[in-house]
Amino acid sequence: MLTLEQIQMRDPFVLKREDEDCYYLYGSTDPDIWKSKGIGFDVYRSRDLLAWEGPFPAFRPEPDFWSDKNYWAPEVHAYLGKFYMFATFKADGVCRGTQILVADQPLGPFRPHSDGPVTPKDWECLDGTLWVDAEGEPWIVFCHEWVQIKNGTVCASRLSPELDRAIGEPILLFSAQDAPWVDPVKGGAGYVTDGPYAYVCENGDLLMLWSSFREGRYAQGIARSESGNILGPWVQESMPIFENDGGHGMIFRTFEGKILLALHSPNNTPDERPLFIELEEKEGRISAIES
């Protein structure tokens, strides 16, 4: 068994399984996701969020898989009886994008489901997440990366009912510079958007977690949909919920009813670790509970 402090991971994502009374923890688990050849994604399992079994190999590429690097940010969602992984991949001469994989169980093995990325082929994209709207229609929410457009954006595209392709053109939700707290990176080279994740509050308010940089450190921000649906308009919170060099978060509820924010901190490799922060929610607002 391992503790979170023993697990090197970026972009943590927790899948809670009521039928198994346990949690699955996914993330970017290659030792160096920036420079090394892609190995795959590992998954860990726990009943109490403290002691973790694993790692188990959730995804390993076949020899003819198109991507060989930047295996980033896997999310796993239960949908229509199967488990779908949304993950970022890259290859030389091919734009980074989110591909969808599928498995029959949370441990995998996950296999390619979509024909390559479902994000636009000529866009540098990352960090796709699944959103199912009030009508039951699936969407992918993702980032159009700052390295291509300087002011990174968060966009949404409809998905086919089978989750194997995008339908229609992507729709702009907001940009990094819409948030007053965001600072540029690399001496003004651009403004980062990372890790969007939609969360519905108990009162029905729709929030979007996403990450960028503030004063040189990775930070976790929040936007709010004024309409209550994924197309917004989105209004940015004036300050991040976490700015101590951590981010790419998601929110889940424990079996005991606690609300936890999962993110990684610090942001430098190889020191990044999954971190769970307890939240309180009041009238559509979330804040960290002081420990």
UniProtKB/TrEMBL annotation:
- Which InterPro entries would you find in this protein's record? GH43_arabinanases (IPR050727), Glyco_hydro_43 (IPR006710), Glyco_hydro_beta-prop_sf (IPR023296)
Q: Which GO terms describe its biological process?
A: carbohydrate metabolic process
What's a Gene Ontology MF term here?
hydrolase activity, hydrolyzing O-glycosyl compounds
Q: Which pathway?
A: Glycan metabolism; L-arabinan degradation
Keyword Ribosomal protein (UniProt) = no
Claim: Plastid is one of the keywords in the record: no
Taxonomy, superkingdom: Bacteria
Q: Which UniProt keywords apply?
A: Glycosidase, Hydrolase
Indicate the annotated site residue(s) for Important for catalytic activity, responsible for pKa modulation of the active site Glu and correct orientation of both the proton donor and substrate.
D127
Which family, according to the similarity comment?
Answer: Belongs to the glycosyl hydrolase 43 family.
What is the protein name given in its UniProt record? Glycoside hydrolase
